[in-house]
Task: structure prediction
Amino acid sequence: MASATDARYGQKESTDQNFDYMFKILIIGNSSVGKTSFLFRYADDSFTPAFVSTVGIDFKVKTIYRNDKRIKLQIWDTAGQERYRTITTAYYRGAMGFILMYDITNEESFNCVQDWSTQIKTYSWDNAQVLLAGNKCDMEDERIVAGDRGRQLADQLGFEFFETSAKDNINVKQTFERLVDIICEKMSETTDGSDPNAAGPKVGPSLTEQPQRSHQDCAC
Ligand code: GTP
Ligand code: MG
Result:
């Protein structure tokens, strides 16, 4: 049986022996910052320079070993374009972790981080963990957002921070693994050191649940 912790942090699927936990992770941020590229690099180890803007939402699954557990990651790639915001925020509530991405060559994408953070607070669980990623760090010559600014903002928002490159495969795996680790840390904090596999009801929300609050447009 799954525990109350599972209810908050992901379902422990007793019917599927291939993994111990399933974590739902969302990648969010302005259009063209590289969310889809980041996911493709992580899941398929591929990269394409072509820009095909995401329509709505899509996901990929990857199972990793972490802390002696097989963790199935269901990674949702959201459209950054404002017109899809109502659809994408509907998926926030079931997520245990967020990768909030901006593009280090695009000031506007960085300026919108605060708004994205507000969206997370509005639509997700209180315990959802967030990691800020400054993507396209391979484009040093076109850098507009200094690494220190990213780090400072992450500190201010209480997020961890990485600069990444989907193109050159810099910090991609590390970003996902760190996010998984902080989700696991939060999980053990909440269980107060007790057995996270202890029996209890499995009542976690499903991905198809709709947010209770009405949609508010992001300024981005
Ligand atoms: P939406 O789906 O519209 O929200 O955009 P997105 O955030 O998914 O952006 P996408 O991954 O489609 O990438 C946008 C463009 O940036 C594409 O042309 C990618 O090839 C390019 N790109 C993505 N990541 C990187 C990176 O790390 N470095 C460089 N140089 N280009 C990148
Ligand atoms: Mg995309």
User: Anything to note?
Assistant: Helices lie at 4-9, 35-44, 85-89, 107-111, 113-123, 147-157, 172-190. The beta strands are 21-29, 57-66, 69-78, 97-103, 129-135, 160-163. The pocket of magnesium ion (ligand 2) is lined by residues 35-36, 53-54, 77 (CB under 6 Å).
